[in-house]
Specification:
With 615 residues, the chain is of the alpha+beta class. The protein has 21 helices and 19 strands. The strands form four sheets. An eight-stranded antiparallel beta sheet has the order 2-19-4-10-11-5-6-7. The chain has a seven-stranded antiparallel beta sheet with strand order 3-18-17-13-12-9-8. Helix 2 runs antiparallel to helix 5, helix 6 runs antiparallel to helix 8 and helix 15 crosses helix 16.
Length: 615
């Protein structure tokens, strides 16, 4: 077969592009896909500019008709398409899909499926996947709520009797909600994509095949710095089972007569067919709460996004089941300030933003939850009248030591009752990844995938998450556990439009730090005009003056973490205002993607341990 034939035949070009992406995926580079082990990132000592430059070129990707020069590394540019994710392997796979003619939804699903393999300690196949998508043809933005619900057997009485009233954080078979990732991917393909599940899963299957064929010695040699919970033999067996699961889903799709029917058959096979029954049987045998009926009832909501106008931009966020409203409230509270009169990272700048975040965190903790079970006063919470009242509580000279929720219903600036926390904590998170994609037609995907700390469901190939940690056993709490209720989650992708078209997207990993980082990145870009790479790599600060959404640990009054590049005089001035300052690394692990509205050029960039690619 000639090269001319390969490059002239669309189907062959598509396969070749995917193979190019897979060939570039080497296990030692990714250390099994695990990224930085904490919510703080710093540049590794000794990493040379030459090494980064070598990372950014891949001549193989330039072959074929209409191929543009490929760019990759921690930042990348492209005229036709760009992607930023949590691993090199997933970035390569997503870019290959773009180069093969797939759109942003196709590329995002392709990348996310690979991520669920190579980043499984941060984002597992049985986890969660909120997605914001801009559809260029329809000129619409919508939110895919890739979040499963608590099983029917999950009640406060059960946890009181079996877990002393505490919903555990890790390695607990009872802590899994219904897996939401697969259906979120299928909904994205149905509503916005052009490819089949099999086409998007091809790169994932290639990675799984590689891992399933490894020896114990190879696994031991390739493991990175992070601890693996599975012994090498079990690790190999899990990937063999995972490969079988995805191949079974592909086979189910192949019985259909068209693409849309095929996607429905994948869904039915997993949620209402053999996989659901196998998961039910395993769960019953191992003391779990998930049952066939829980999976059969699963439905992925498609929501209108929450929005605000900020400066000359429109900010889009997920709904009240996420912490997205916290970011919108904070930016609305900050908009009347002329932030540019302050130097970035000056005492005034850091103090004002931190105090605004404290107030909005208090509202977040007091009100947000699953809107099908909780009446969240989101309209009043975002109203200018209410936020003006709340803004008046910011003391320009003193750091607040209290958690002060407001009363948006009355409205009144102070509710008088602090948000409820817990005497016992289940532990903090160490989870979550990123996925941003833009294509040549103007479509944009912003997603924050997660799923961590759960258990592997026997031989089903499914690694479950532990997201029920976001629910509680406290009566009348917005996160009170109820059968069928979705936990509130920190996952919170961001999309920014100007004049109706996307110009910027952000995705951050790091639990409660996610939107603290997003706020600062947005200000860097939208107010201070930083280039994307500088906006994401600039040092960030954060506070724990909020209830931890992973186990509901009480707030830590006045805490403030700043990066080491903050001048000593600034730290001293912040301490004089009453901030409990500690110095460390940058909060969160972020990726960004910008689109130049004039030229269409795309620029993706990420923190250390994140990867970008473009063409």
């Amino acid at each position: 077969m000639s090269l001319q034939y390969l490059f002239s035949n669309p189907r062959q070009r598509w396969i070749l592009s995917l193979l190019i992406g897979v060939v570039s995926m080497t296990l030692p580079t990714e250390s099994f896909g695990q990224t930085e082990s904490s919510g703080q990132t710093e540049n590794r000592a000794g990493q040379s500019a030459a090494a980064e430059a070598n990372n950014r070129q891949d001549p193989a990707a330039n072959s074929g008709n209409n191929r543009r020069e490929r760019d990759s590394g921690w930042q990348a540019k492209g005229q036709s398409g760009a992607i930023a994710t949590g691993s090199r392997r997933s970035a390569d796979a997503g870019l290959a899909m773009l180069q093969a003619g797939g759109n942003a939804a196709d590329a995002a699903v392709t990348s996310l499926l690979v991520q669920s393999v190579v980043e499984s300690q941060l984002f597992c196949f049985g986890g969660e996947l909120p997605i914001i998508i801009y559809n260029a043809e329809r000129k619409t933005v919508e939110v895919i709520v890739g979040l499963g619900a608590a099983p029917e057997l999950a009640t406060s009485d059960w946890f009181e009797a079996n877990r002393k009233g505490v919903i555990q954080g890790r390695d607990d078979v009872a802590n899994a909600v219904v897996p939401g990732v697969l259906d979120a991917c299928l909904v994205a393909l149905e509503r916005h994509g052009t490819r089949s599940f099999a086409q998007c899963a091809e790169a994932m299957l290639a990675v799984l095949s590689e891992r399933a064929a490894m020896t114990v010695e190879q696994v031991q040699a390739a493991r990175g710095r992070r601890n693996e919970s599975l012994a090498p033999e079990a690790w190999i067996r899990h990937h063999q089972n995972f490969h079988k699961l995805i191949q079974r889903l592909v086979t189910a799709e192949q019985t259909a007569s068209d693409r849309m029917q095929g996607l429905r058959r994948v869904r039915d096979y997993f949620y209402r067919g053999p996989v659901a029954r196998e998961l039910d049987a395993w769960s019953q045998a191992n003391g779990g709460l998930l049952r066939f009926s829980d999976l059969a009832r699963h439905h992925t909501r498609v929501d209108e996004p929450l929005t605000i106008d900020f400066a000359d931009y429109t900010i889009y966020k997920c709904g009240v089941w996420s912490q997205g409203p916290f970011l919108l409230q904070t930016l609305e509270m900050l908009e009347p300030y002329d932030l540019t009169k302050w130097t970035r990272h000056s005492p005034e700048y850091i103090h004002t933003i931190t105090e605004a975040m404290k107030l909005c965190f208090a509202d977040r903790d007091a009100y947000l939850g699953d809107p099908e079970f909780v009446e969240v006063p989101i309209g009043p919470m975002l109203s200018s009248n209410y936020l003006e009242m709340r803004r008046g509580l910011i003391d320009p000279q003193r750091a607040s030591q209290d958690q002060i929720a407001g009363d948006p219903r009355t409205p009144a600036p102070i509710l008088g009752i602090p948000p409820q926390d817990h005497k016992i904590t289940s532990g903090k998170s160490d989870d979550t990844s990123n996925c941003l994609v833009a294509d040549q037609w103007g479509n944009v995907v912003s997603a924050t995938p997660s799923g961590w700390g759960g258990v592997i469901a026997g031989d089903t190939g499914i690694e479950l998450g532990s997201r029920m940690i976001g629910l509680t056993c406290w009566e009348n709490h917005p996160s009170e556990l109820m059968p069928g209720k979705r936990p509130r989650i920190t996952l919170t992708p961001t999309l920014v439009c100007r004049d109706g078209k996307p110009v910027f997207a952000v995705s951050v990993a790091g639990g409660d730090q996610q939107d603290q980082a997003s706020i600062q990145i947005l200000l860097n870009r939208l107010i201070y005009g930083m280039e994307p790479a500088e906006a994401v790599r600039s040092g960030r600060f954060s506070t724990e003056h909020h209830i931890n959404w992973f186990g509901h640990e009480p707030f830590k009054p006045g805490t403030l973490q700043v990066t080491r590049d903050i001048e000593a005089e600034v730290v001293a001035a912040l301490k004089q205002r009453g901030h409990q300052v500690s110095v460390g690394g940058t909060a969160g692990r972020a990726v960004v993607l910008s689109i130049d509205p004039a030229t269409g050029e795309k620029h993706a960039a990420g923190d250390q341990g994140r990867f970008a690619a473009g063409y």
